[in-house]
Amino acid sequence: MKNSIKILFGAALASTMLLSSCIKETFPMEGAATAEQIGASESGLAAMVSSLNAQMTVYGTTGENHWDFGYPSLMIIRDLQCNDMATIPSGYHQFQAWETNRYMGPDYIYTSLYWRFYYKLVYLANSILAIQQEGESAGVARAYRALAYLDMVRMYDFKANNYTTSANMNVAVPIVTEATDEAAASNNPRAATEEVYALVEADLLAAEKDLASYKRSATNTPDVTVVWGLLARMYLDRGARFNSTDDYKKAAEYARKAINNGGYAPLTQAQWLDPINGFNNSTSSKAWMWSINLTKEDRTVTTGICNYISMISAEATFGYCMASSKESPMKCIDKAFYESIPATDFRKQAFLAPDYSNASSALSGAEYALANFNPYTQFKIRPAEGNVDEPLIAAAADIPLMRIEEMYLIEAEATGLAGGNGQAMLESFVKTYRDSAYQYDSSVSLSENVLWQKRLEFWGEGIVWWDYKRLNKGLERGYPGTNHYDATRFNTDGIAPWFNITISRLETDSNSGITPDQNNPDPTGKVELWEE
User: Fold this and answer.
1) CA distance 360 to 383
2) What phi and psi values does residue 176 have, to the nearest 5 degrees?
3) What is the model's pLDDT at position 175?
4) Least CB-packed of 57, 342, 388, 506 within 10 Å?
């Protein structure tokens, strides 16, 4: 297949040729080692497991686009599509398409990013499972495949909203396993949403057995506690999707298993605000359950600028987010949300106060921060080792994928939704670990109270997108004094339409099982901008 689709880079419009079909690109046959070649050797399987870890930070899934550097790209995209990450207009802002809800239809390269990334992860997991159905390697493969399908079922399952409609309800994405041949993949309809959840559940329950005794060397490879965390996420979301009290109970159960049996502990105030080893070092605390661990040899690091730190840390003196002036697209917290954070909650200190009263916490010092940083700039996610100048050091940061704090919050919400005292659990967590003066907001639901905590706790980590969709949470970026720039000032009644991701034309052109009219609707331009 040789189809041209449009690619927009900054404000410029150009065209590019996408290579081959989705099936051939995502499940390549040429150059792939066969099961017979690899055999069941430990070294061969270990290399394949390493390829799963490497896929999480692969650079250039869609070509050499600077916004395309693996799962961390998706984390930033998800937060920019929600409410709490604000930027300014700039030709250096790599994620404007997503933040402004432009070019989100199936013909654009931006939507192909998801499809290419996740199905390559599925392909790598399937390659292991084609060789080994049980054991530690199989368990790791199933955990990664479950991550991919759990993300995709939540992205592509169409949720009713006030801006777009669809006749294609209760379907998600095609299921491709180690048993799917190329012929089947080329005529593979969108599977029922419930069927995709069932695959995720089956993979994770199998992985729980396979990884029961597995001792990993670092948190960048999932172990049984990560499987429990994924089960907690899945059951919470499936409970909401199908109104299942049993699933809520299971979500709380698995979250508690991770809390009780993983040897984890929530970050302390000192660890949270540590400028050298805070949110860039997976070994400096006991909070991180799963992570991406970059080294100076990783391609996203050697690019210098196409990586998580380059795109999120204004303190780095290199990359797309660097604060050489206040015109840089530095990542800031939403002003209204910042103002809602009590002064007694230490997490507020991870963002630059509008009066610059905490500017001295900047790695470059108060004077530099005053001259170059915008109010509300984030100081949470910082260059590795506190090094702001050397990309091979600064960008080689660890990136959190799952922290134990999420398990406490899932447990509290799921317990409440199942009929238990989730409020007491939430109050206990926040008062013990975050804000001793915390006051539960009885004017809104338990889920809203938990979501507020998640918005602050996981700012920049790409977590709350799932909760926004699950809870039908609307956006409020437009208001007097907002720090969101004019092209991003969306206020929505319920979830925004871009929470229903469109399937890339790469797939509908090569998979006869999905016709274009079976796609999710293009959300581009469906929400009017707020104007003062």
Assistant:
1) 17
2) -125, 120
3) 98
4) 342
In a domain, 530, yes or no: yes
Query: What separation in angstroms does the CA of 92 have from each of 87, 125, 459, 487?
Result: 11, 35, 22, 15
In the block, tokens 């150009």 appear at 14
**Token pair 């989705």 is at which residue?**
22
Residue found under tokens 């799952």: 402
Given a contact cutoff of 8 angstroms between Cβ atoms, the answer to whether 356 and 366 are in contact is yes
Instruction: Give residues with Cβ within 8 angstroms of 160, minimum separation 6.
Output: none
Residue 30 has pLDDT above 50, yes or no: no
Q: What total number of domains does the chain contain? A: 1
3-class state of residue 15 by DSSP: strand
Q: Which amino acid is at 336?
A: A
H helix and E strand count, the chain: 22, 6
* Tens-digit pLDDT profile for residues 133-177: 999 999 999 999 999 999 999 999 999 999 999 999 999 999 999
Residue 13: predicted pLDDT: 26
Instruction: Judge whether 79 and 99 are in contact, CB under 8 Å.
Output: no
Contacts of 57 (CB under 8 A, 6+ apart): 69, 70, 71, 72, 292, 294, 298, 299, 300
Neighbours of 330 (CB within 10 A): 26
Above 90 in pLDDT, residue 37? no
Q: Looking at the domain assignment, is residue 128 inside a domain?
A: yes
Q: Considering only CA atoms, which of 358, 356, 357, 350 is closest in space to residue 331? A: 350
Amino acid at 290: W
Separation of alpha carbons 281 and 397, rounded Å: 7
Q: Which helix (H) or strand (E) holds 332?
A: strand 332-333
**At which residue do the structure tokens 């294609």 appear?**
168
d(CA 214, CA 195): 29
> Residue 46 — very low, low, confident or very high, per pLDDT cuts 50/70/90?
confident
- Is 187 part of any domain? yes
C-alpha pair distances (Å), 329 with each of 72, 98, 455, 463: 17, 14, 21, 22
Give me the pLDDT at residue 328, please: 83
pLDDT band per the 50, 70, 90 thresholds, residue 532: confident
Residues 475/99, Cβ–Cβ less than 8 Å: no
CATH of the domain at 109: 1.25.40.890
* pTM to 2 decimal places: 0.93
Which comes out higher in pLDDT, residue 154 or 14? 154
Residue 317 counted as domain residue: no
Mean of pLDDT values over 504-509: 94
Structural domain harbouring 22: 1-64+100-214+474-532
Handedness of CA 84, 85, 90, 94 (dihedral sign): negative
For 171-215, write each residue's pLDDT tens digit.
999 999 999 999 999 999 999 999 999 999 999 999 999 999 999
SS3 321: coil
Distance between CA atoms of 221 and 487, rounded to whole angstroms? 39
* Bridge partners (DSSP) listed for residue 290: 402
